[in-house]
Automatic annotation (TrEMBL), chains A, B:
Protein name per Swiss-Prot or TrEMBL: FMN-dependent oxidoreductase, nitrilotriacetate monooxygenase family
A Pfam family that the UniProt record links to this protein: Bac_luciferase
Keyword Phosphoprotein attributed: no
Organismal lineage: Bacteria, Pseudomonadati, Pseudomonadota, Betaproteobacteria, Burkholderiales
Positions of the Luciferase-like domain: 33-387
Record's keyword terms, sorted: Flavoprotein, FMN, Monooxygenase, Oxidoreductase
Length: 446, 446
């Protein structure tokens, strides 16, 4: 290979920002999450910046929060992902469009069909973020009193995936001949009836839409559990992760890539894309001040609860304006506890400030100048912590515009991110092969 | 009222033409049904012609036909309606967008959410064609060995409707305050938890999207059975019907409107819109020739089967090029049998021609000049056979362009169809009120 490894960038966009204070930042659009004109502008900006994809997370319920937190949540409602991305497909040409859809609360015929439809509408830009939905509130919206147990959900998910991909292969790529003269519209010998009868699902087929432009839309997964990693290694095209540090990212990367290889696949054909919360400033101090200002918009009550969980120790009775005292050992994950303590010490944060930071966003962050952010991203790429990132913006439109206008050009200068799209499909952008149809070989001459 | 009653026009668009020979007509797009660029052009033409709505019918299976018929079917696959209409919402501003969705094979939380999403994406232009799905092939794609029985389907449909509309009312119209200063994004006292537990469905709520722009998207139904008429009278905003003649249309119209009144509703608030297959010519003869040419593209095998069913008598053994002999009485519906016989006599059709006509399209048709078609439409309107029509085009784009460019101006000259949209929502176009939220009264001053 003559050029360096390339970063892949998704924009993780539901809500438009994960930070609970985003909507109150000076100059931010308070309704950014639910204004289609804004969202069209955002996706067009991302496309100009050559992002691989726009990525819609999703929930199937209003999250169960105390009223005091719920009333402050700008993420309480949102557009439904498939309809939103279909609307955005009409105002974009190249950027990938990834929607979340659940294997626990939907039917494989519907899911296969909708993603095939989005793929055709967008000219091959659809991606399916396959989730099993761990939120117990969702079950109550779908007729289930108790939530489906984790192992059971994963077994169904695996079977669901097999059915969906089988349905996508219902028609050979060349089945639709549309021969006006002879009157033959479709070659029915190039149609496959799936006839699936499994443990959880029974689906006859064929799918009532042509094979997707990409063969199969890109399949994204996010599970970090043992079962989640294994199903991802066997089936996913991309994995969304949330490692809090490069070291943890490298461990995850090595583990999943070796699982991919053991499953008989090329490790390059699964892209690992951690979420990264990025705040851009003209100086590192300015970026940290932006983050600090953003955190002041987080409600103390919700922040202090998150902080107590992260520390494994109730700190809600302490003086919010004092510094964090020594915290005894606890059941909390050691590394995440240590990270919180390190933050407090490094930035000399009061308990209030620390609570608001944790309540705002507590995962992997890159807060600095375009150069320091590019340094971090390059390090992750070169040192095999990831194949790119799902970027999360602190507020909209400023945080997104800063990334597109300042960080992307820096990545491009370093030769680690494209200056123009080279292909037309999401698979092209991610460097993934187009799957063969499992039921129909290509005809010679194709 | 100072102006005459107004026609309402929907374009019934899945497949783009119902006529099985449509894709082979000279100048027609063979891929009209599955080419998003074409479909964007069609919907924009309909919007310029001020149509109330673009209406997507749907199936949840590849229809079970003999291979000889299936391979000639241009309707074998299609886009999924909600994703297609969302994509079309981005290239239109006013026209309504009605999608079909099943109460038997989907979940009310999903259905409520997707139509609410389409309504917000389109600025209040969504409609839900509520169907119970009578096609037994669909059941096999959703894990059911036997099809759900008719009465059972209607009971579930009625409960499903109650849940969907209840979910649409999850939030008061003014719930989202987004007060940046105080940090209150949503007034949680203006949120309603449905907590539905019924015979078929158990759904907690609230819906995770704001109340639709229209309050509730427009609800369309198509059932003509006793149960179908009654549920429509109680709940629908519009009814799609298929009466073969004005007399039958008038009977249906009177029956359903009186049911609406008995249900305590204003009969003007339910619009009855029969399907009408329209072929436009510069003369009546030219229009009939177009129809006859179109019918030649219908495969004889599928046509003769349809003809035998319509007559209640197997005519497949007769000489295809002879005229229709006397046909004995049978179990076939008398009126539809008589209509077929009348066609054969009036136009001196051979058995082949008659079979191809029936196989092409056998419902209500308007074949003539812009003036004779406008005459027919006006008569139906004035004599209370309908409140308008769901127009079906014989082939695309010609059949659609002819209607938009020639018939619509004639209807406008007569003062029975709008020259410009007066409102912005589909409810505005149809003259329907915006439903109050059943859980939240408007605040004084609203």
């Amino acid at each position: 290979m003559t050029r360096s490894r390339q970063l892949h960038l998704g924009a993780f966009m539901r809500p438009v920002s994960l930070h609970t204070g985003a909507w109150r930042f000076p100059g931010a659009f308070p309704d950014a999450n639910f204004n289609i004109s804004h969202l069209k502008r955002f996706v067009q900006t991302l496309e100009r910046a050559c992002f691989d994809a726009f990525f819609m997370a999703d929930h199937l319920a209003v999250l169960n929060m105390p009223p005091a937190a719920l009333r402050r949540s700008h993420t309480v409602t949102s557009f439904e992902p498939l309809t939103l991305l279909a609307a955005l497909s009409s105002v974009t040409e190249r950027i990938g469009l990834i929607a979340t859809s659940s294997t626990t609360f939907d039917e494989p015929y519907h899911v296969a069909r909708r993603f095939a439809s989005l793929d055709h509408l967008s000219g091959g830009r659809a991606g399916w973020n396959l989730v099993t939905t761990s939120n117990p509130d969702a079950a109550l919206n779908f007729g289930l009193e108790a939530h489906v147990e984790h192992g059971e959900r994963y077994h169904r998910a695996r079977e669901f995936y097999d059915v969906v991909t089988g349905l996508w292969d219902s028609w050979a790529d060349d089945a639709f001949v549309r021969d006006v003269e002879s009157g033959v519209f479709v070659d029915t010998e190039r149609m496959h009836v799936l006839g699936h009868k499994g443990e959880h699902l029974s689906v006859r087929g064929p799918l009532n839409i042509a094979r997707p432009v990409q063969g199969w839309p890109v399949v994204v997964q996010a599970g970090s559990s043992e079962a989640g990693r294994q199903i991802a290694a066997e089936t996913a095209d991309a994995v969304f992760t949330a490692p809090p540090s490069l070291a943890e990212g490298q461990r995850f990367y090595a583990d999943v890539k070796s699982r991919v290889e053991r499953a008989g696949r090329d490790p390059e054909h699964l892209k690992i894309l951690p979420g990264a919360f990025v705040v851009v400033g003209d100086s590192v101090d300015e970026a940290r001040e932006k983050r600090a200002l953003l955190d002041t918009f987080v409600h103390y009550d919700s922040g202090i609860a998150s902080l107590s969980i992260a520390l494994g120790h109730d700190v809600s009775q302490l003086d919010p304006d004092s510094l964090l005292p020594e915290i005894p050992e606890s059941n909390a994950s050691k590394s995440s506890r240590q990270r919180v303590v390190d933050w407090a010490r490094r930035d000399q944060l009061t308990i209030r400030q620390l609570a608001q930071r944790i309540g705002g966003y507590s995962g992997l962050e890159m807060v600095g100048t375009p150069a320091t952010i590019a340094d971090q991203m390059e390090q992750w790429l070169v040192e095999r912590g990831s194949d790119g990132f799902n970027v999360m913006f602190p507020y909209l439109p400023g945080g997104l515009d800063d990334f597109a206008d300042k960080v992307v050009p820096e990545l491009q200068r370093r030769g680690i991110f494209r200056r123009a799209y080279e292909g037309t499909t999401l698979r092209d952008h991610l460097g993934l092969p187009r799957p063969e149809n499992r039921f129909f070989a290509r005809r010679s001459g194709d």
